[in-house]
Amino acid sequence: MSMASADGWLRSLHGKPARYETGLVDVAPDTCAWLQPNGDWSESNAGLVIGDGAAALIDTAWDLRLTQRILDAVAERTDAPITAAIATHGDGDHVNGFQLVPGAAFVTSEAAAADLAKERPAGLRRSQLGCTLLRTVGVGAPRRFGTYVGGMLQPFDFSGIKLRAPDRTFTDELDLEVGGRELQLRRLGPAHTAGDTIVHVPSTRTVFAGDLLFTGVTPNSWSGTVDSWRTALERIVELEPEVVVPGHGPVGGLDAVAELDRYWGWLQTQATPLLRDGLSPARAARKIVLSETFRDQPWSTWESVERTVCNVVVIDRTRRGASPYISHRERPRLMWDVAALATAITADRAALQGER
User: Which of 185, 224, 7, 205 has its CA nearest to residue 106?
Assistant: First the structure.
């Protein structure tokens, strides 16, 4: 749980010093972002658009306790009831709390609804227990996996979650009116997931980008190619927003969108020759992030650099003409490689610090 004081939230859910403001923040007139530093695993953002006598909630948190924290802040900010609840995509850290707004119409894309149906909150509780066991009695790779994934899951309570099915879905585009405010929903995936959707608020030139945008946080692709993700970012730029609220990380603008686009282009350029030379995605990712070239890039200081493994897997599959989709069944195995890279990064940084 984040720690609080009279000065505000001081630490992230994962116990790190908060890098930016936490809680419900006004980003434009009657347009708010809920920010959860530092944007690491499932430290996800949400949004609020307030109209005349009605409001729209965009995304929730990964558990009910954290979602209630969002709703309590919303209640302090406005008396307008939440009549529309919008999911930018189907990952649990953005949808698990929608049961707490039963009076709101729950809307998401068809593709996001399909992803939502694959979520298993009860399985995450079992994973927490299994990771505790591996961390306690395991050795080598099992202990490394249990420590990393257990740490990722530790701040969250998956009890009592009953996933809510959407009341309304759409294929690619849907315009909503909430209390006189126009909200333009546009599915731009597949990228992070198949159902990635942005919520554009034209009246305030604000875009809630969901996990199409990570700021100061390494993204990871589960479903789309690098090219499809970059095309989605281009679509956001075409809207000319002044404010872009990411799914993870601090609020940004078009500069943040441009930096993520540069990251994807850079990573693809670095990974492709290594994969062509026969390195596995895990070995290629390790070679990339431990290189001097990587240390000179702005994304070397982002959260969760180890997610590079996921992204190189997608680049490799695309290169070979295979589907980029990393299924829910494949993801636990992939996390072994992510955990191994996280350990290597920690050791490398400690060695560099020692040299100084």
Answer: 185
Q: What are the distances in angstroms from CA 335 to CA 27, 93, 155, 306, 307?
A: 35, 17, 18, 10, 9
Whether the model clears a pTM of 0.90, i.e. scores above it, the answer is yes
DSSP state of 30: T
pLDDT on residue 148:
95
Q: Copy the structure tokens of residue 12.
A: 């992230």
Contact 269, 4 (CB under 8 A): no
Inter-axis angle of helices 308-319 and 226-238, nearest 10: 110
Dist CA 181 CA 276 (whole Å): 50
Helix, strand, or coil (residue 4): strand
For residue 29, count CB atoms less than 10 angstroms from its CB and return exposed for 0-12, middle for 13-18, buried for 19 or more.
exposed
C-alpha 233/C-alpha 205 separation (Å) is 16
Q: What are phi and psi of 40, to 5 degrees?
A: -70, -165
Q: What is the pLDDT of residue 354?
A: 76
Q: Give the residues of the chain that fall short of pLDDT 50.
A: 1-8
Quote the tokens at residue 125: 């509780």
Query: What is the predicted pLDDT for the residue at 138?
Result: 82
* Separation in Å, CA 344 to CA 113, 271, 287, 289, 293: 37, 18, 11, 10, 17
Phi, psi of 322 (to 5 degrees): -95, 165
> What pLDDT, on the 0 to 100 scale, is given for residue 305?
98
Determine the 3-state secondary structure of 162 from DSSP. coil
- The DSSP code for 105 is E
